């Protein structure tokens, strides 16, 4: 498995996409620069936007990406602050996610797509998920991930940070913590930090 797809768990409430390898538990993809309660608060407008997103999904496609293997691309213009897509997968407890991550590693799947909702809940999109799992990292992203609550159920939603033009790749900053083993960043942004961590 390549270093760009290694990962583990996210900090509580951060909502982080996590891909593969329990052997590297410090590689974390964080969902937003200002996590905490702001990243998980849900207002009436979020619920309204979420219901709209269910009725009329954004036109997106996954295709080859210059950042890494596959990526997710807008097929229509998306305005800043709009919901882009819900990150969908199987909801599992942290212990189950840890077990699956090791199992995925042993079976040679290559990548797993685990996204933490809170301290004990993870969405596993590895086998049952949608195209949101193909969203790549960028040091200057056009989206953020947030955890919202709809009808008592926590959901992970990707929001546009800025206007996104048709054909543009959907990205967000994974925000891996600093660690000794560096994972190279291939985002190509003029603001690229050089590594994901």
From TrEMBL:
- Listed Pfam families: SET (PF00856)
Q: Name one GO cellular component term.
A: Set1C/COMPASS complex
Enzyme class, first EC level, given as a word: transferase
Q: What is its main location?
A: nucleus
Xref: SMART domains: PostSET, SET
Reactions that this protein is recorded to catalyse: N(6)-methyl-L-lysyl(4)-[histone H3] + S-adenosyl-L-methionine = N(6),N(6)-dimethyl-L-lysyl(4)-[histone H3] + S-adenosyl-L-homocysteine + H(+); N(6),N(6)-dimethyl-L-lysyl(4)-[histone H3] + S-adenosyl-L-methionine = N(6),N(6),N(6)-trimethyl-L-lysyl(4)-[histone H3] + S-adenosyl-L-homocysteine + H(+); L-lysyl(4)-[histone H3] + 3 S-adenosyl-L-methionine = N(6),N(6),N(6)-trimethyl-L-lysyl(4)-[histone H3] + 3 S-adenosyl-L-homocysteine + 3 H(+)
Q: Where in the cell is it found?
A: Nucleus
- E.C. number, please? 2.1.1.354
Q: Which GO MF terms are attached to this record?
A: histone H3K4 trimethyltransferase activity; RNA binding
According to UniProt, the name of this protein is [histone H3]-lysine(4) N-trimethyltransferase
Q: Which species is the source of this protein?
A: Thamnocephalis sphaerospora
């Amino acid at each position: 498995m390549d270093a760009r797809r290694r990962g583990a768990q996210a900090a509580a409430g951060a909502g982080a996409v996590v891909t593969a390898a329990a052997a590297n538990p410090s590689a974390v993809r964080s969902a937003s620069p200002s996590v905490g309660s702001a990243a998980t608060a849900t207002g009436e407008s979020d619920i309204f936007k979420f219901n709209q997103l269910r009725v009329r999904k954004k036109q997106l496609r996954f295709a080859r990406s210059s950042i890494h293997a596959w990526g997710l691309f807008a097929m229509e213009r998306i305005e800043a602050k709009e919901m882009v897509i819900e990150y969908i997968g199987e909801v599992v407890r942290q212990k189950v996610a840890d077990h699956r991550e090791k199992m995925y590693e042993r079976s040679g799947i290559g990548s797993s797509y685990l996204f933490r909702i809170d301290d004990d809940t993870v969405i596993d999109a590895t086998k049952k998920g949608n195209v949101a799992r193909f969203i790549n990292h960028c040091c200057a992203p056009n989206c953020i991930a947030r955890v919202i609550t709809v009808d008592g159920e926590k959901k992970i939603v990707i929001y546009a940070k800025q206007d996104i033009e048709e054909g543009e790749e959907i990205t967000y900053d994974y925000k891996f913590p600093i660690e000794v083993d560096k994972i190279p960043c291939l985002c190509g942004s003029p603001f690229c930090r050089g590594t994901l961590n």
